[in-house]
């Protein structure tokens, strides 16, 4: 076999799409290069637990090369893919201080999505999103830091502003964040402060739509709303955000009446758009992107006219499929299957069929809503299902064990083990605001000098 | 008792000195304000395990206010103390966007030490120290990042530069770092890379002195040296660092001959100097600082002419005591005892007597050296003692449990659970280099705007 060149598959991204595409090709006669902007695989469904001090970054973001260590046909490279030459079948990637190109026979693009501010990128500095470990650590620093600042504040109006937390977007991530901040304020922090009472913190969950967890259906949406009220979360629906600044947020309600909420800590879980690579790839290949910047693909997840290029996961626009882990995993497996069939000389072009395995969201400890097929679970039963599914999907034995331990500490006890705030968060925030950087990519690129 | 003003003790710092001073006053009829620059208590002896991916920040840096939650006579405030008015008995502290003053009847200054570059502050950007969680995360990013960059590098000379790690300073921290990087290269990372062999990494441990762990005595020093050689660490003694730049380090040997080592990753564990607050306090109170910027105190840890001001721990200059945890803990307890005696009307001024409980350093898993009284332990026995002592002193039950679990993963297995590298490290580094900031204090202050 020496010297024989095997079919070369390049995968872009180390999220659910990229990782599962690589794994699904473990027995295929191919050489795989996985290129990603981070060195870790992010288990995004638990990111809110990093942002609220329950889990450590390592537990939800193990090193990609550690996960793929035993799969000898994969190499993992750190790089931010900036361009794809669809004719020459090569892509260009940048890493700190260096640029490199990689050639492919088949390409699987699973570059994911970034937070979308619907054209108001200036909101980002004041209301970070929840898409990366950096986002989660930034929010963790802001949330715990806000209580610290309130304890110092002598002006009651300013103190109230520090004690007001606004979450924009009442999908799963927003509901989970609001619920966890309420548990922080009511269970973890009381007793730790002498001047303020953390239980008086105000937590607002806003959405322009008229329901929380709208995609879960009326029954679960109503139950989630009731549980949020029990936790002390104020839910304001039909509210559109029109402005975000350092000390507050500007809204208009459904009658176009303006409102302002004074608050220092804002977080954005309201929308996503495809990674910038998507638009560049679409332009190069002569295909469309949808309104959310996702690449329009053929039914088999390839680009029109380019059967060797697959786009999967959050960056893929197909049949209005949602940007959830299961779509990424299943479309990645579909792409891997198509590549394998082609190598075997079997007919390809089979359409991707998504099997909805259901969705779930935790609202607080011991309480979650879950929708699986026709089954609707809520409360403790929903939470048990949540626990089982997340343990099953968390990568690696040791991460499961330590996560269970931290859950035990947080759910049975009242503590949060992972709440260390570092100066790096302060520095990064200052750098971001000063440079008006809203995309981490630009920063990675700006770093070239080192 | 209502309305009666109790004796007010202000403690500066949340390290071993600050925390143990507060705890020692738990039954005293005083109101305590602890002011610190970070919101956590750092268990510094295990910091190198954060830098090398074994432990998470939360495990070695629990929130100070969580530790002191049940001690109702303490309040904890976030603030960087910038000045002390020794006549007016008040101090001024800064927090992001705010400045506040606190009055005291007794003051315990336990502000600790920062890394010292012996006048060459420009080294800091290229060779971070090991004094804070930020330092450890920065080094973690650089160490794991160096292997990533080597995997990308096509020029063999540049790749070798990424695969060369230099630790300056062969005291406990330097020896522990060098040993852990060797274990990373030889146990954790092999198999994860496809182009480089992590086992070919070169790890250099440098010191200007002529022994490693000089303070441990000849027998243990020799044993430590032998174990480091077994691990593949090159130890170069009698080497003075005269220059540090992005791609290498300049040295002169004991015959004044110049040498250069090409290396991207450098870390500094060579010396410390008292926190800047020390010099300001000494000036205000009219006392001296020693060559390392530590405040010269009376035998009872007070300042001459100011029996109400104590300086303890790493910032204290007394009898050439070393900057170790036990000195900080014992001097803090002494200061607390003196305050209690004064309040009871008992005579004060008793000199502080340090009881040396010994010292220890891990070199690799299952191997440590320990010097306790006349006892000298090395190898597995030394390591068992290390394990027992560190479990005993780690703060909090849950931190003990998760640390043991992570040690199990790393020592019995080969993994490192906590190796997530974030963009924040990239941003912080760029910001530090661009602004030529060598003291975190300046950054905290510069942040005022938010």
TrEMBL record, chains A, B:
This protein's UniProt keywords: FAD, Flavoprotein, Membrane, NAD, Oxidoreductase, Transmembrane, Transmembrane helix
Molecular functions per Gene Ontology: NADH dehydrogenase (quinone) (non-electrogenic) activity
Membrane-traversing stretches: 375-395
Entry EC no(s): 1.6.5.9
Q: What InterPro entries does its record include?
A: FAD/NAD-bd_sf (IPR036188), FAD/NAD-binding_dom (IPR023753), NDH-2 (IPR045024)
Alphabetical list of SUPFAM superfamilies matching this protein: FAD/NAD(P)-binding domain
Catalysed conversion reaction: a quinone + NADH + H(+) = a quinol + NAD(+)
Which residues are in the FAD/NAD(P)-binding domain? 8-332
Family the entry assigns: Belongs to the NADH dehydrogenase family.
Database matches in PANTHER family? EXTERNAL NADH-UBIQUINONE OXIDOREDUCTASE 1, MITOCHONDRIAL-RELATED, NADH DEHYDROGENASE
Protein name (database record): NADH:ubiquinone reductase (non-electrogenic)
Q: Which gene encodes it?
A: ndh
């Amino acid at each position: 076999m020496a010297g024989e060149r095997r079919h070369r598959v390049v995968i872009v991204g180390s999220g659910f799409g990229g990782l599962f595409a690589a794994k699904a090709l473990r027995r295929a006669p191919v050489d795989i290069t996985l290129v990603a902007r981070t060195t870790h695989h992010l288990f995004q469904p638990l990111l809110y637990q990093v942002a609220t001090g329950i889990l450590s970054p390592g537990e939800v973001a193990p090193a990609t090369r550690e996960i793929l260590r035993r799969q000898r046909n994969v190499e993992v490279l750190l790089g931010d893919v900036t361009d794809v030459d669809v004719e020459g079948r090569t892509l260009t990637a940048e890493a700190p201080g260096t640029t490199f190109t990689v050639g492919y026979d088949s390409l699987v693009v699973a570059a994911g999505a970034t937070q979308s501010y619907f054209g108001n990128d200036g909101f980002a500095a004041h209301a970070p999103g929840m898409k990366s470990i950096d986002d989660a650590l930034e929010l963790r620093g802001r949330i715990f830091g806000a209580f610290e600042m309130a304890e110092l504040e002598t002006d009651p109006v300013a103190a109230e502003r520090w004690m007001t937390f606004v979450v924009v977007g009442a999908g799963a991530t927003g509901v989970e964040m609001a619920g966890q901040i309420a548990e922080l304020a009511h269970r973890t922090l009381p007793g730790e402060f002498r001047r303020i009472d953390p239980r008086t913190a105000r937590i607002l969950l806003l959405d322009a739509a008229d329901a929380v967890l709208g995609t879960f259906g009326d029954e679960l949406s109503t139950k989630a709303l009731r549980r949020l009220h029990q936790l002390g979360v104020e839910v304001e629906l039909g509210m559109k955000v029109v402005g975000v600044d350092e000390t507050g947020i500007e809204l208009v309600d459904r009658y176009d009446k303006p409102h302002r909420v004074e608050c220092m800590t804002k977080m954005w879980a309201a929308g996503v758009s495809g990674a910038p690579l998507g638009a560049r790839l679409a332009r190069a290949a002569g295909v469309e992107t949808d309104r959310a910047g996702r690449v329009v693909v053929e039914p088999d997840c390839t680009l029109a006219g380019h059967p060797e290029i697959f786009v999967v996961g959050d960056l893929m626009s197909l049949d209005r499929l949602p940007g959830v882990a299961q779509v990424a995993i299943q479309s990645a497996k579909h792409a891997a299957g198509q590549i394998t069939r082609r190598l075997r000389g079997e007919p390809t072009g089979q359409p991707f069929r998504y099997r909805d395995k259901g969705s779930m969201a935790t609202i607080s400890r011991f309480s979650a809503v879950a929708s699986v097929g026709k089954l609707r679970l809520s409360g403790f039963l929903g939470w048990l299902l949540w626990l089982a599914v997340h343990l099953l999907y968390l990568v690696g034995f040791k991460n499961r064990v330590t996560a269970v331990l931290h859950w035990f500490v947080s759910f049975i006890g009242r503590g949060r083990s992972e709440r260390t705030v570092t100066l790096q968060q302060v520095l990064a925030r200052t750098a971001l605001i000063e440079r008006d950087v809203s995309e981490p990519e630009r920063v990675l690129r700006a770093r070239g000098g080192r």
